[in-house]
Every structure is written in C-alpha cells, then in structure tokens.
Backbone:
C-alpha cells in the first residue's frame, strides 16, 4: 500500500515506482507563466537549518524543469551553492538584495524581497 508522506512515497507492497507514477506526465504539470507574470518572493530563513542562513525564492508557477533552470542560473551568477526542493529555490547565504536585483534584471519584474 502506497502513502504520500510530505512528498515521499512509502510502500510496503510490491509495486514498482513505474506503477506508482503511471499516468503522470509532463502534460499534468502546470504550464510555466511568463517571467513578467511570476510573483516571486525572496526571503531569509534560519529555522530548521542548524543555524545556517539560506535565501528562499518562492511563488514560482510552472514546470519543475523551468524552476531548476532558474535555480541553476542564480547559483552560477551568485557563485554559491543551493538546491531546488518542493517548488522553492534554496540558496546558501544571506543574498536577498542581490537575488532580487538579479531576478528583476532577468525579467521577473514582480519580485519582492
């Protein structure tokens, strides 16, 4: 039996991942909004990260591949590490002002810090 526990799939049965994901496709994902229509929020977070400060970018509407590309581009331009998880871009460090400026430069005009 498969259960959804916060994005993780746990199974005690003999199903395969292919059978669990059957029927899902890229067409089921939400279409990516144009850059000028994205309402991105940039904020700092420390809780739950063992005292480390990260910059979170939330509010992206679209396909995961597009969000991953945005995350990759921001990491490269800032010269830092980070990841894309659960619809958020996570960047290491306190970079709100720099990230907001970069996003606006990239065409995300409705970005707030």
Residues:
């Amino acid at each position: 039996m498969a259960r959804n526990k916060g994005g993780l799939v746990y199974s005690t049965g003999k199903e395969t991942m292919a059978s669990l994901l059957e029927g899902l496709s890229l067409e089921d994902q939400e279409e990516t909004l144009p850059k000028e229509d994205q309402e991105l929020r940039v904020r700092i977070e420390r809780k739950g990260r063992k005292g480390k400060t990260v910059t979170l970018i939330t509010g992206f509407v679209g396909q995961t591949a597009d969000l991953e590309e945005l995350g990759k581009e921001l990491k490269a331009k800032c010269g830092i590490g980070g990841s894309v998880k659960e619809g958020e871009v996570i960047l290491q460090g306190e970079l709100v002002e720099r990230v907001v400026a970069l996003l606006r430069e990239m065409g995300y005009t409705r970005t707030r810090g």
